[in-house]
Every structure is written in structure tokens, then in C-alpha cells.
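Entry 14. Structure prediction run on the chain below.
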Amino acid sequence: MFKHLRKWFVTHFFGHSRQRARLVSKDGRCNIEFGNVEAQSRFIFFVDIWTTVLDLKWRYKMTIFITAFLGSWFLFGLLWYAVAYIHKDLPEFHPSVNHTPCVENINGLTSAFLFSLETQVTIGYGFRCVTEQCGTAIFLLIFQSILGVIINSFMCGAILAKISRPKKRAKTITFSKNAVISKRGGKLCLLIRVANLRKSLLIGSHIYGKLLKTTVTPEGETIILDQTNINFVVDAGNENLFFISPLTIYHVIDPNSPFFHMAAETLPQQDFELVVFLDGTVESTSATCQVRTSYVPEEVLWGYRFAPIVSKTKEGKYRVDFHNFSKTVEVETPHCAMCLYNEKDTRARMKRGYDNPNFVLSEVNETDDTKM
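Output returned:
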């Protein structure tokens, strides 16, 4: 019991200090920052203003949304007030009874702001209106109406595009907390479980991986985040997955795999990050989305397999128990891939026979040279 308490204490209080740096977090966010970017390069973000607005967080987007409308209403309110002031339509100028104002019933800055709001959002209460007395007022009315349509189109389109972005669909795709290494079909494999939480499918799904680690070239160059392709498959391949139920994808650890020279004892000391990608097309919107997650050596369990989660009910329906989604079961597993392949090679040699063409069988007659 003391050992379990000590393990729990070390894991919860000292484990955070030994956490490895990740390029990709478990929920798919990239942990990278750009430094010393020139001011000219920063201006490019404003040239591509649409993508910049879409990438903003909701709090900044809503701030821009509210500021754009309130700012335009107040700015044109000042212009309408200036028109009334120049034309001497305000009560402080004591206009005559026969005086025709540019805008009816504008008595101050507040009424000018209300008229600006009514004009831009096309409310039209009928109490304040433009007369044919001033060409300036007519031009300002046309200009505000056109600019209001542009602001409405841009801001409403940005909000709609932000809501319907396929990255929100990616939130309903989940990966297992850990990856496991065990035998599958007589081969040593690295397995990961992935599930679609919606009943709608991802069309044309494709899954693959990248192994990120620091390497040194023969010339002595150190490459940080060197990428190696990791092929993941299911029993039917890695193209066009039938993603209606949770799938267990696996990578065969063969001599071409970067995991081939690793062992159960040396795996925790390795320094790598396995990033897994799932690309697909959303069935309802036909938009392409990508889901990603990552695993560090501490999250790869050697000698385990995933517990079953799919069962069949008495009514004939298939039931998925997500309580066991990331649950693992310890199984007997070779402690290294090289050992498994050497064992297979030894067994194959024992079953094979070898012919020696130079071998000649000769008969030897035994004689008794001893004479009595």
C-alpha cells in the first residue's frame, strides 16, 4: 500500500515538472509562437482581413462587431447633426415657420443619432425623414445606406462563417488518451482508438501520423522537429474509413518503422512526439475538416490492448460503451520488436531443412584385425 501511495504522490506533485514540451496539444492546438516578425510581414494579416477576422477569438470578434455598428451609427449621427447645423435647422437658430429643413424633426445630437440608426438598419419609423431641400443630405443618405449594407454583409457573414467552421465538427471526433503496443495478427503494432461522437459520417476519411523528434545528420546538423511518416491502417486500409463506430487504428512495427529499435525498457527514455491526423469531409456541409492529437512516450503503453466497447443488445442494436473507450488491459507482449522478428526467424529456420550437394554416403566394412 505504501508503494501505491508513494507512486500517487510522485505522479501528482512532481509529474508536472517532468512534462515534455508538445508541438500539438491533446485537443489539437499547436504550441508554437513566431518571434522577430517584421512589421511589413504583420501588415499582410490586414491585407487578408477576412481570414484574420475568422481566426479571431469570439471576444475580439464580438468587440469588433459591436464597435463597427455603434461606431458607424455615431459617426453618421455626427454628420447628420453637421448637416442640420450648417443648414440652420436646429431649434437654437429659431428657424421661421416657412423654413424647410434638410431632415425633419432633428432637434439635436440625440435625434441625429436616432435618425442615423433608423437609416442604416432601415427601420423607418416615419417621424424623421429627408426632404428634397438639400442635395448634401440626399447624398449622405445614399452613402450611409450603401456602407450599411457592406457592414451588415461583412459582419454577419463573418459570424456565420465562424459558427459553421468545420473545426467545430472536429470537436466531436475523439482519440484515446493513450496509445498501446501489443501483438495484432501475429505482428507487433502500435494501436490508437478513435471515435466519432455524431451519427453523421465523415466522408473520405484518411488517417496518418508524423513522428517528431530531434535528429543529427551525418554532417553534424541538428534538426529540431524532424518529421517521419507513420502509416496507420485498419483492417480495410487507411482510405475511406467507414467511421460509424469507434475504430482501432494500428501501425505495424516492422524493420522500416522508427519504433523497431525501441523496447519496453527504453521507451520512457525516448524523446519524440507522435502526431496523429484524421482528415475527412463533413457529410452535412461538404466542408473538409482535420482532427489531430499527439502522444509523448509517457502516453504510449507497452504490453497493453484496448478493452472491447462494442456489444449487441437483445433488441438487435449495436451499443458503444464509451466508459471503456480509453480503458486498457495488460496482455503478454514481446519486450521489443526485434526480439519478435528474431523469434519468428528462428522458428522458420527450425522448420526448414538444408541439402548439402557435396555430401557422399560411403559404406565402411568393419574387420576384426585381432587374431587369436
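The chain has two domains: 56-163, 169-351.
Filed with the rest of this week's runs.
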